[in-house]
From TrEMBL:
One of its GO terms (biological process) is proteolysis. Residues 122-223, 647-744 form the SRCR domain. Residues 398-472 form the Kringle domain. It is a single-pass membrane protein. It is found in: Membrane; Secreted. One of its GO terms (cellular component) is membrane. This is Uncharacterized protein. Residues 45-100 form the Chitin-binding type-2 domain.
Length: 744
């Protein structure tokens, strides 16, 4: 590319492309002058706050000023959007600080407004939670993104702690992790923190704009403050738990009562830091609303003559954040409160609400409003139906030492905010019953029953989840923070290297220093081995390239099911976890390359029981009871001698027909006609000495019903059995038949 006579010239495939920079600049310059003359403005700096960039157009929010080399050009946003001065982009109307009206705005009717400063220095935006998002810093009355190609967990932890998330950052993100960026303006291109700073202002900061904002914009995901110290859906901050109720609308009195019935109280904000957090919480989860009830009530006091002598809060307020109005750079809280009092009615009682949406004077729609991007206070009629926020003090759930195996506290909320099921729940108890012998499990509190990493419980989703319980001393909290810097799904080696958590105590050294295999429990001693056998039909999980001691550990520490045994093939290091064992489920088969391991604590004592061919144990009373409890029905073989089983036909015109009755345990009784057919008739006829089988079968008590109890029901014969007792049926005396359902 070369410069010729003030023009850019480029040769492409024989074509010469020429564009004259001076001509373009002159055209823009002339157009800018015409715009200034039209508006009656002599200085372009009135519209162009900088030499280059896009800026708000004071008279019409559907347009914006595009400045190049200090010369303004008026452009229009796409239909249905308005210019967002904070983000410097055309945005959805409800996201802009301009009047929202059903009538299209015009230059004569729209007033440009600027939200008052919130006093925040750092905030997170872009996610649906106040503990995650893109990092924004405030400077010169504007919010700026931060970029850094070397953004670290130490840098992110400083941001988290400055926002009240004292456990630091779980992740330091780079790029568009949280979706659409909240604006494009960047203030910092490099941040370097040691990790112990109180705020970003104490770190080494380098101003500037990087080449690729989308790849270098930074964000954080903070560790939530101890989740288990709040009730369900509670958010912990400071020493309180907050519960946002946004789906239903209530008056102030109704909201206060609903909080009280939950053992809580209406929101009471006592500091600037708390107001910042509540504002970010509501901004993230509340969506559009008309405000939220708080616990604040303000009453007017009258003298004997009925004159208003003073206006006092019902309680002393150590902090206030009254709405100061639009287009103010700063305002005292006294003036802001007076502005609130000037617009309220004569009703002697008003309630304090928090809101981020306030009216804007407009000739088009007097009810128009705009978002302030921060929740300020205002006095409202206590009878307004609004959503509300309850609060409680943090719960005293105790603390844990080490892995929390001795924890006896009352935490019953998991790290994901889910409610713990009682240990006695029908779906939980079979998995933990063997622990109930030595532990009191008549509750739903988090416990570490089997030496896992920390206390856990079962949830309604059918799986287990760890509980989020604080450590008992500061030293252990610091050690825990260091251990979790790799993330919840990783294990941190002593050297600081991160490995998959599944590799911890798997019998194979993955950390260079071997720290992943130190102090590991040898679970293989808790199993009994059977050579050249494997359990069939109860497989749940399969692990490849796993050493035997790790296979035993996986079985003993399984959470989503009760692992009773495992099969292991040494040559391929294949591990298969089973939810059954020999005595409970049977299924043991010969296999010369496999070994079978059964947990000693869950083994079944088969003494005085009937043992099926595959090893399953059943009670002796199940032998010859008509139900085939063994897979090969060996529990119902050779039973006629024990049962003294006989069959006969009664109430017919001869020995060849009649009502079918059987004798068992010395008693005669009829057979129900459910599922009765020719195969069953053939078996009866063969057993009675009629070799050609049954000619016809009848149902519905064709030969009477008799007065005895039904002894057989739901018979299912193949037709070649030697006796009716050899067929499948519901069991001796088990039936659901009426007197009219006798088979013949």
């Amino acid at each position: 590319m070369s410069l010729v006579d003030g023009s850019h010239k480029k040769i492409c495939d024989g074509w010469i492309l020429i564009w004259n920079v001076d001509w373009t600049y002159q055209r823009t310059k002339d157009k800018g002058k015409r715009l200034l003359n039209k508006l009656g403005i002599s200085d372009s700096k009135t519209l162009c706050l900088g030499p280059d960039g896009v800026y708000p157009y004071p008279k019409d929010c559907s347009k914006f000023v595009n400045c190049w080399r200090g010369r303004p050009s008026l452009q229009r946003c796409a239909p249905g959007t308005l210019f967002n001065a904070a983000k410097r982009v055309c945005d959805h109307p409800h996201q802009t600080v301009c009047p929202r009206s059903r009538v299209a705005p015009s230059a004569e009717s729209v007033s440009y407004v600027v939200a008052p400063p919130s006093g925040q220095k750092v905030r997170l935006r872009g996610s649906d939670a106040p503990w995650a998002g893109y990092v924004q810093i405030e400077a010169e009355g504007q919010w700026w993104l931060v970029t850094d190609s070397r953004w670290t967990l130490s840098d992110a932890s400083v941001v988290c702690r400055s926002l009240g998330f004292t456990r630091g950052a779980a992740a330091a993100t780079k790029g568009r992790t949280f979706g659409v960026l909240p604006g494009n303006d960047v203030r910092l291109k490099r941040v370097e923190c040691q990790g112990d700073e109180e705020s970003l202002g104490e770190c080494s900061l380098e101003r500037g704009v990087p080449e690729d904002v989308n790849k270098k914009v930074v964000g954080v995901r903070c560790y939530r403050n101890w989740v288990s110290e709040c009730g369900p859906r509670g958010v912990r901050w400071g020493t309180k738990c907050y519960y946002v109720h946004k789906s239903s609308l209530f008056t102030h009195a109704e909201a206060r009562m609903r909080c009280s019935t939950r053992g809580a109280r209406l929101l009471s904000i006592t500091s600037k830091e708390e107001n910042d957090f509540v504002s970010e919480l509501l901004s993230a989860v509340a969506g559009d609303s008309e405000g939220f009830h708080t616990g604040g009530v303000r009453q007017q006091i009258f003298d004997s003559g009925g004159r208003n002598t003073t206006v006092q809060p019902q309680l002393e307020l150590s902090f206030t954040a009254w709405w100061p109005g639009w287009n103010v750079s700063a305002s005292s809280q006294a003036r802001a409160l007076n502005a609130q009092l000037a617009k309220i009615s004569d009703n002697p009682t008003h309630c304090i609400t928090v809101n981020d949406n306030f009216p804007v004077d407009s000739q088009v729609d007097a009810r128009s409003s705009a978002p302030a991007e921060y929740y300020f206070w205002e006095l409202s009629n206590c009878g307004l139906k609004l959503p509300y926020v309850c609060e409680t003090d943090e719960l005293d759930i105790g603390c844990i030492e080490g892995r929390g195996e001795t924890y006896e506290g009352t935490a019953n909320i998991t790290s994901k905010g889910l409610v713990c099921l009682p240990w006695s729940h029908p779906e939980v108890w079979p998995k933990v019953a063997h622990f109930g012998i030595t532990r009191d499990l008549r509750h739903n509190y988090c416990r570490n029953l089997d030496g896992d990493d920390e206390p856990y419980c079962f949830t309604a989703k059918g799986t287990t989840d760890f509980c989020d319980i604080p450590r008992c001393d500061w030293r252990e909290r610091n050690e825990t923070a260091e251990e979790t810097t790799c993330g919840a799904d990783k294990f941190t080696c002593s050297s600081g290297t991160c490995i998959h958590r599944e590799w911890h105590c798997d019998g194979q050294q993955d950390c260079e220093d071997g720290s992943d295999e130190r102090g590991c429990r040898d679970y293989s001693k808790e199993f009994v081995k059977v050579l050249r056998k494997r359990l069939q039909g109860r497989e749940v999980e399969k692990w490849l390239h796993t050493v035997k001691v790790a296979c035993a550990s996986r079985c003993a520490r399984a959470k989503n099911f009760v692992c009773m045994s495992f099969n292991y093939e040494q040559s391929t290091q294949t591990c298969i976890l089973n939810d059954g064992n020999i005595g409970r489920s049977g299924g043991l088969v010969d296999d010369p390359t496999w070994e079978y391991y059964e947990r000693k604590s869950l083994a079944v004592d088969c003494t005085d029981k009937f043992v099926c061919n595959d090893g399953k144990c059943i009670n002796s009373t199940q032998r010859c009871d008509g139900r085939k409890d063994c897979k090969l029905s060996e529990d119902e073989v050779d039973c006629e001698g024990r049962l003294n089983f006989e069959v006969r036909l009664v109430n017919g015109s001869g020995a060849y027909e009649g009502r079918v009755e059987v004798k068992v345990f010395g008693r005669w009784g009829p057979v129900c006609d459910d599922m009765w057919g020719l195969p069953e008739g053939d078996v009866v006829c063969h057993q009675l000495g009629f070799p050609t089988g049954a000619k016809d079968i009848f149902v519905d008590s064709q030969f009477g019903s008799g007065n005895s109890q039904y002894l057989m029901d739901d018979l299912n014969c193949h037709g070649n059995e030697e006796s009716l007792a050899d067929c499948d049926f519901a069991g001796w005396g088990e039936h659901d038949c009426q007197t009219s359902e006798v088979s013949v």
